[in-house]
Amino acid sequence: MQVELLKELVRTIAGKDTEAIVDILGSEKSVNEFKIAEKLKLTINQTRNILYKLYNQNIVSFTRKKDEKKGWYIYFWVLNPLKSLEKLLNFKNKELYDLEHQVKSKENKHFYICASDSLEFNEETAIHHDFICPECGQLLQLATFDKKIEELNARIKKVKKEIIIVDVELAKIKEIKQKELEKEIEKKKRLQKAKRARARKQRKKAKAAANPKKKSKKKKKSKSKKKKPEKKKPKKKRR
Q1: Do the Cβ atoms of 181 and 173 come closer than 8 Å?
Q2: pLDDT greater than 80 at residue 94
Q3: How far is residue 148 from each of residues 138, 151, 202, measured CA to CA in Å?
Q4: The predicted structure's pLDDT at residue 115
């Protein structure tokens, strides 16, 4: 699992300082919600709020067990690897699209900036204000984005690499899931086969119990059908 990328996803969905939940739920075993709250150093309600946000995006799932002593239900949470990576892939593809759109926009369109206020205006807005900053009244200047485009292209390159990594991880998990599914199907087939064999055996027993006379007659017939010894032919005398 790509822990750092998943942390970025969790932070985007649930907010700042929530990424530690990836480390807590990183093992395959489910974790008690009170232990999660303790490790996050948050109240149980704050912890549940984070978990429900992630649950709504299929990042985590839960099972509940009743506390026999106290009588209430305790929720146990686990990370959903397949759904998490699928969500992460969608997130990264969207990020890539936005970055590429920004580069295209800055390469093909004109933008104007106010040097004193660091405000940026597209060409339509700049024309509307007669190329005068509406905040300070200074003349707007044509912006150049060579450095910004370079930064965006570097980020695009990084995101593309991350998408490849997530794709590989997804393929591994899907392969494991497929093998597990095939084993389960094979197991069901074996159980069904054994069940049919038992049913056939029981039918035979029931049939034999219902017709005991026929069975004894067959035995008598088989005894009567014993081969009789062949009579030896007399040898011809030589003349």
Answers
A1: no
A2: yes
A3: 24, 5, 80
A4: 85
Cα separation, 218 vs 216, in Å, equals 5
- C-alpha–C-alpha distance, residues 17 and 23, integer Å: 12
Separation between Cα atoms, residue 136 and residue 114, nearest integer Å: 9
CATH of domain 9-79: 1.10.10.10
Residue corresponding to tokens 């699209």: 97
Q: What is the pTM of this model?
A: 0.65
pLDDT digits (tens, 9 = 90+) for 174-218: 888 888 888 888 889 888 988 888 888 888 888 888 776 655 555
Distance CA 47, CA 74 (A): 13
Q: At what angle do helices 44-56 and 3-14 cross, to 10 degrees?
A: 110
Statement: residue 144 has pLDDT above 70? yes
What is the DSSP track for 3-19?
A: HHHHHHHHHHHH-TT-T
Give the start-to-end residue ranges of the domains of the chain: 9-79, 85-182
CB atoms within 10 A of CB 54: 24
Distance from C-alpha of 172 to C-alpha of 166, rounded to nearest angstrom: 10
Asked whether the predicted pLDDT for residue 231 surpasses 60, the reply is no
Please state, in angstroms and rounded to a whole number, the distance separating the CA atoms of residues 131 and 141.
8
CA separation for the pair 226, 137 (Å, rounded) = 124
Q: Which residues of 161-188 are buried (b: 16+ CB within 10 A; e: fewer)?
A: ebbeebeebbeeeeeeeeeeeeeeeeee
